[in-house]
Amino acid sequence: MRMLSRSKCPPIGAEPFLRPAMPELDVIRGIAILAVLLYHSFYWQVDISRFSGTSRFFLTGMALGRLGVNLFFVLSGFLITGLLVDSKHRANFYSRFYLRRALRILPAYLVTLSILAAASLVPMSFIVLSLLYLSNLTPLFGVAIAYPILWSLAVEEHFYLIWPWVVRRLGNRSLLFCCVAVIIASPLLRLATYFLTEKNGKMFYVCNDYTWNSLDGLASGAVLAIILREYPVSRRGLLVMLSICCIIAFLIFAIGLPHGLASRENRVGASLQLVPFHLLFVALLGVFLLVGSSRYRPIVQLKPLMFFGELSYGPYLYHLLLFYFFRLPSLHFKPFSMLVFRFLMVSTAASLVAFLSRRQLEDRFLALKDRLAPS
Fold this sequence. Notes:
It is built from 15 helices and no strands. It is an all-alpha fold. Residues 1-8 have low confidence and may be disordered.
């Protein structure tokens, strides 16, 4: 058995970075779903021209909330890759992984599609393609992405489908090179997409939802998962690595912003805009692991965000449904007050529905995991 080097031994009062339970990661989930809720409440389909001053500045800033999805991708790449690497030599590697994923994801997902179909909120063609987890590729079939949030779930499912086969067949260092190749290739693919759509006079944002344009966030999280397993990273070493990620991210911002990085309507922004954010999200994840494994762990293990993070899948699935059904009351609210009221109402309702869904539906299927796909 290979002995741990001194750099791998945590200092007194600290735990290893990787532990059976890492509650600080639920806080990251909570931050990500909160960002998505803020985006859909204060920016998505909001006519910002009706506002001015501080309200307009705030609403414009909420555009960054869409990056909550990319934070989910980085976290998912980290967790799923770690899970697969740790279990790659199991005899039931594939069946265990796919069964557990299905039991976790399908119940609430199928309920969402059933509601969309029963209420005739989306075309049946979109429902059928979504049942095949092609929600992000429906434009290729001449069908609009009618329930927008499902695109990211389709990307995740394609990742779940392919990644176990890659992990099982590659050693950890080869897997690391594979992830780096994906991180380099993704902006190039987005650039190619930009040129292919440029003739139409604008960038088709929907093309960024295609799986092959959305893999670098997952690969970035996977890189961190592999490094922490394959190399004897000390706490100081991890901090240096995360600092380098931040420095590179800010250099990309500094160099790219004058050339249009802030907008996806030009080649620089279309291809590179997400790259510095992925680096910052890797740094955020690493910092949470550092602090969460130290005596300062209460700072990153905040109970409200942990609770919200544990429920994040439900609010993510259901909150747009509530936007569809929710109607602002005809009270004498100013426009901004109405948006705040809607945010509070939808967020509260989404959390309640998600809590009931988790307890009354999803947990019943999760309870089957140890029987159908034992550890």
